[in-house]
TrEMBL record:
InterPro entries: Nase/OxRdtase_comp1 (IPR000510), NifE-like (IPR049939). The lineage of its organism: Bacteria, Bacillati, Bacillota, Negativicutes, Acidaminococcales. One of its GO terms (molecular function) is oxidoreductase activity. Coiled coil: none annotated. This is Oxidoreductase, nitrogenase component 1. Transmembrane segments: none annotated. It comes from the Bacteria. Residues 3-374 form the Nitrogenase/oxidoreductase component domain. It holds the Pfam family Oxidored_nitro. PANTHER family: NITROGENASE IRON-MOLYBDENUM COFACTOR BIOSYNTHESIS PROTEIN NIFE.
Length: 411
């Protein structure tokens, strides 16, 4: 259900109906509040308001006798009140358990009002993950509303969410793409009005705002579909976190656009930007003792990026600690990648206690119990490109400048 909501939350002209008890809508509201606070923390504001979200407000008796009548009433109310260009229905666990025939109700109301109504098969958390609803509704939007059209020259479509157009990821990618002389014409799904969906097929290129998890796999499939059906060239293989990945990303953009020489110029500008900041950081960071503590599985954390940051800041890394949160196979997988990326000794939590105590700064994926250790918490979703690298370096620099020893800084 929350996945359906996130896929269309800012698509002007849409209305979302949760066929659910009232409390289920609280999940979506909480997600929105968290997103708004994150945006405000970066001195930004969301540019658009979210679309209406309604609940059919199922009750106990509906779990026994069925809730289709309540759903039909809710759909009629939504259409007559908001005059939407499309309705999306997300089913709760309750609706799935009792087996409400949601598609039949949606079909009848659609025929009566001539308003498209999209439904999804997944129900709450029954046999499905968050992303199932997100990608199922994305697929139905593509099938129902996106049609072949004339390509818009030098245009790019961003695929994915990652905080929306006002989030760091999209803003940084947009900034770099502008250096290549191309224009971002939309971010799909979720951030294009229903009337603008034709632009999805009009884009010459698509850039996936992905990562390393399940989201990236689903977004890549969307990009492949756009290429197959509309001839949209795409970039999806590189997650530009850290300087090396950013370089690879810029070079790949230049190759896809056929502007390899321009890519070298853009790369030079980004390198100059990073070098200027390093000149400011190095007098403080060079030679300082650090320890890297890792407790996340490889799917969500690759040590290569932070190891490169350590190298750029000329920190003296005395050890890498694999925390006790791993099972055997997960630890072996991470150990292998760590050893491929570094010749620094690897320790267990117990073996590394003295290293943590002696370090000037500890870079860690988990908060440590040592209250005297000056810790930098490595984010689950690190910020991208040179701006993200500078922000990470700045956090390390500021922590080392602080007179206080101990505490956790979140970058």
């Amino acid at each position: 259900m929350p996945g359906v909501w996130r896929a269309v939350a800012y698509m002007d002209g849409a209305v979302v109906v949760f066929h659910s008890p009232r409390a289920c809508a609280h999940v979506a509201r909480t997600m929105d509040i968290n997103s708004q606070y994150r945006t405000l923390s970066e001195n930004e504001r969301e540019q658009w308001g979210s679309v209406p979200l309604l609940s059919s407000q199922m009750q106990e008796k509906d779990a026994i006798f069925g809730g289709v009548a309540r759903l039909e009433k809710c759909l009629r109310f939504a259409i007559e009140t908001y005059k939407p260009k499309c309705l999306m229905i997300a089913n709760s666990c309750v609706a799935g358990v009792i087996g409400d025939d949601v598609e039949s109700v949606a079909r009848e109301v659609e025929e009566e009002y001539n308003v498209p109504i999209l439904t999804v098969e997944c129900c709450g958390f029954l046999g499905a993950e968050y992303y199932d609803g997100y990608f199922e509704i994305t697929q139905k939007l593509l099938e129902r509303f996106v049609k072949p059209c004339t390509k818009q020259k030098d245009s790019v479509l961003l695929l994915g969410d990652n905080g929306g157009p006002w989030g760091h990821y999209a803003k940084e990618v947009t900034r770099i793409l502008q250096e290549f002389g191309v224009e971002v014409i939309g971010q799909f799904p979720g951030y294009m009005a229903m009337d603008e969906l034709e632009k999805v097929a009009a884009a010459e290129y698509a850039v996936v705002l992905g990562g390393r998890g399940q989201t990236h796999i689903g977004l890549r499939k969307v990009a492949e579909q756009l290429q197959e059906k509309y001839g949209t060239h795409y970039l999806a293989d590189i997650y530009p976190v850290g300087w090396q990945e950013t370089q690879d990303w810029i070079i790949s953009i230049g190759r896809i656009l056929g502007r390899e020489q321009l890519a070298q110029q853009v790369l030079k500008l980004e390198q100059q930007r990073l070098s200027e900041q390093l000149q400011h950081f190095l007098p403080v960071t060079e030679g300082k003792k650090t320890v890297l503590c890792i407790g996340r599985i490889l799917r969500y954390f690759h040590p290569g990026n932070i190891l490169q940051t350590i190298k750029l800041l000329r920190l003296n890394i005395t050890g890498i600690i694999l925390l006790d949160s791993y099972d055997g196979d997960e630890r072996e997988a991470m150990l292998k990648v760590v050893q491929e990326n570094s010749d620094v000794p690897v320790y267990t939590t117990a073996e590394g206690e003295k290293l943590v105590a002696d370090a000037d700064i500890v870079l860690t994926t988990h908060e440590l119990q040592n209250k005297e250790a000056r810790q930098i918490f490595l984010p689950m979703l690190p910020q991208v490109a040179v701006a993200g690298e500078i922000k990470m370096m700045q956090g390390i620099y500021q922590s080392l400048c602080s007179r206080l020893k101990g505490g956790v800084r979140y970058v």
